[in-house]
Structure formats: C-alpha cells, structure tokens
C-alpha cells in the first residue's frame, strides 16, 4: 500500500459517518496575521512590494498624471498599452503612442510596446501581491505579460486588504486572475536571478490616495 492510499484511507474512515453532501469545511484559520489599521496595512503593502523588487511610488489622484508622465519618460517609453477603460485623465500628460488593448494584438505586436499602464482588482499587504482580474481598467492578461515595463495603479486604502483570504472574498473565481508579486523572475540551479523571463522586467506600483 502506498503512502497516498494510506492517507486517503484515513480520510475516508474519518468521514465515514458524514453524509457525502454535508462534509464540513473548516474555516477557523487566521484571516490575517495581527490587527492593523488602514494606514498600517498600506505601509505593509509598500514594504513587501519593495522586498519583491517592485518600485513603489506614492501620490494623490491630482498628482497621478504628472507622475505617470515622469515614469514613462524615465523608462524611455515611446509607446504604451492602454486598457479599454483606463481613466482618461491618468495619461493626459503622457507623450507616448497609445496602443489600445484589442483581441487582434499578437504577442509580437505587444513585444514592440515599451510599457503598459493598468489599474488593479486588489492588493494583498501580507504577501506584497497585486491581483488583476481582466476588468476594463486592466485589460487582457497578455498586455501585462509581454511588455517589459508594467506600471500598476492601486487606490489606497480602498483596494488594499491584509491577507489572501480577504482578497479572495473580493475576487470572482470565474475571472482570469493574475497574481503578481514583483517583476517576473527566475533562477537557475546556481540561484543566478534573471528578471523579465515570464513577464515584465520592471514593475512599478503607484499607491494613489484620494
């Protein structure tokens, strides 16, 4: 008998007297580690994003257009992918060619684009994770996986939660969820880190208040 068969056997014996459609699902795990206010949660998010080598910026809603202009200019971006319902005023100061998110855009087309700017669905402070769900201000998954530079705008504190369980409560599991913890990276057997292999080499997160 294999280890797998032993474990499954114990599970079956433990549930022998429970009707198949009434097996209890225990949800007494911690929903978050510690108790934090909104400001502390945002600080933890910023700290963990930076720990994952994302570049974190802060601004107000009024300052956002100028900040995005400076970030794209500093990156030398001549073109930027724009999701269908990205708030128009976000890029009003940006001097770069807009490439609109369309189904016809191929990976080769997107590889020629310098940057992408999106919103987000939710951000998880404890893990430093940004979650995209394909909403109109985020666009198709491919536009955040192919361009080398991703600028993601997070509204704080509204879009920030402490933990993964809290994030899951806000997300629709039927949507195409992309969980991002820092720029794309991998390492070989000698632990030499290489960034930009499976997604953007540079991730910049803008925490916007107001």
UniProtKB/TrEMBL annotation:
InterPro entries: FTHF_cligase-like_sf, LUD_dom, NagB/RpiA_transferase-like. Residues 43-208 form the LUD domain. Pfam families: LUD_dom (PF02589). SUPFAM superfamilies: NagB/RpiA/CoA transferase-like. Gene3D superfamilies: NagB/RpiA/CoA transferase-like. Transmembrane segments: none annotated. This is LUD domain-containing protein. It comes from Streptomyces thinghirensis.
